[in-house]
Amino acid sequence: MEIRLLRAADVRRLLPMAACVDLMHKTMIAVSEGRALVPLRSILRLPGGRGAMGNMPGYLADPECFGLKLISLMPGNKPPLFSSHLGIVLLFEPEHGQPVALLDGATITAIRTAAASALATRLLARADAGDLAILGAGEQAASHLEAMLTVRALRRVRLWARDPVKARAFAQEQSDRHGIGIETCGSPAEAVHEADLICTVTKAREPILEGAWLSAGAHLNVVGSSVASAAEVDSATVVRSRLFVDRRESIVNEGGEYLRALRAGLIAPEHVLAEIGEVANGSKLGRRAPEDVTLYKSLGIAPQDLAAAHFILEQARRSGAGEVIHF
Question: pLDDT (tens digit, 9 = 90+) per residue, 150-163?
């Protein structure tokens, strides 16, 4: 039995953002058409609120594979030394059930999460959208900037983070990397003023963005919160938006923003208009009009990780990348 080890540098080299956006398009259609098995993730919470471990198993029919992601969630970690998300993706082949690859889970998560947001942006945002606001200055902020540049021509980028020193460092580093100016802002309201693309990628437990601040026609990717007890945007944002999700079962169990608005009686379950895969395959309508506010709630699902891992493994086999271990 052979297992190919693929480290962070391998993942970054073999999974370009543009390719991953197209991969998420295919994968999310498969999920919505029932060609994937997606059990809800289970969470082991560490004592004292220090962090948690997520267990995300899944099966994908095309390309056929199964496996799981095991990932630790440690809010106190300080990149670049330690990401807040650390773990592995273990990929199995379907014929005999052998494990065939062990991949860096943090890097896959960073790329595929942003690529899924880019897919939602490509499908839901106005074609002329290019005024981007990013709330947060961590790893997902960096990957989301790259992802937004992949699907829209950005004319302006603004950034807010709780730590202004970190925000300024992020803006300088990413400006140098992408050759685009990044303005730092003193508040979320300032950052999102007249923005038509908004990505929230924070560790916020309570809302940092209010629906009253949004401009008509804006598209939001709400990414940072992935548990029912946390929310990055307020209920007014949810009420005002046409709401789309990666998977319905995930949002009714884990979507904090949606659940708060639902429990307050501000929306009904029908407020979830579609999975993004249903928009991608044309079975459900996305944006109706230029003035619509659209919101994609990203929770992350195992088939995204499996599709990325399978793609990386195929590229690695062709190029000889990674390290093969014989069991």
Answer: 999 999 999 999 99
